[in-house]
Input
Amino acid sequence: MLDRSSCTPTEAEIVARAEAMVPWLREQADAVEKARMVPAATIQAFQDAGFFRILQPRRWGGYEMSPNVLNKVLMELARGCPSSAWNVMVLGVHPFEVGLLDQRCGDELWGEDTSRLVSSSYAPFGTVTAVDGGYVLKGEWLTSSGCDHAQGGAFLGGRVAENGEQVFRSFWVQKADFEIVDDWFVVGLAGTGSKKLVVKEAFVPAYRSHVIAAYGEETHGHVDNLYKMPFFYVFYAAVSSVIVGMARGMVDLYVEHMKPRQNLNQAVGAAVNDPFIKGRLGEASAKILGAAARILHNTDEAWSFAERGALVPIDVRVRHFATNQFTGGECFDAAHMIFKKTSTRGVWLNNPMQRQLRDILVGANHITQNQDNIGDLLGGQMLGNPMPAANPFGVRP
Output
């Protein structure tokens, strides 16, 4: 594959590159699961295609495109190999976060090599202590997807006492400051290589950190237009997009499975004539299409503010943040609906549909898909309730 990363592609071109990779990714999906990580050659192919530059600032060789370009790429890649697409999502969204930080961070990360990648683990597993000039981190951070490929270190989340409050921050930690421990033995998305990072003790200068949910003129007024999008929204929408792609891949596999199949126990004969097989496929496809359309609509609406230099209003942010979180549940329901119609044939380990379903299950368990806790936030906001004290928007009630 030719290295085209130095040329800024159009949206159509870069999405077409992702679509063209789907058959190849599907061929290697089983090997990726068995290896429990994405091969370096696949990551390089993604580099060559420019996927990691979509949200990277232009001053450091990036394309600085709308987040929907990344979302559409993820919706294609995950049809072929969910674990590989998950790595593109995680490693591809962090250039956006660098765009929020002090310019020194981008210079340090990409000054010599603009292709360096950064992984993450945002759940505040470890401890953080504020010290003169920065912070000291200690502890273990779980599930850092793609960390083996991230020579640029990792963003780690932590709560730290500041001005009498517990503040949730993200810290850019250098690769030399942590050890990767392979503990990623899981039921699905095994190929993501989401291993544990162990930090014995690391000092992080203050300029390499930001309040992860902060959003307003004081934090976003100075950044380029793309980075006026709320980071949490961009990250959550990217996760939702991967899950949509996984569900689309399930439909692809189901159609291929059913077209030649004969129903030996039913009078209809060919499976394509079975009204229940057709009905489940139609309903599942409608659910997946609805989820995809919502993500793309929400992101376009947020982008319509950011691209003209405006911040996204709070009511719009709440609606976007909340509604995207229903994606995982809807896509798993859709995938499970058609998987059940494969009957016994679907449960064999050599049938890729069982792996696709397990991957969707694990993706739907991600914290960004927490539909159980998010409906009341949206409904309360619509009914005029004050914002709860604990909210992901950095807004005080």
Notes: The radius of gyration is 21 Å. Strands lie at 119-121, 127-131, 134-144, 154-162, 165-173, 179-181, 195-205, 209-211.
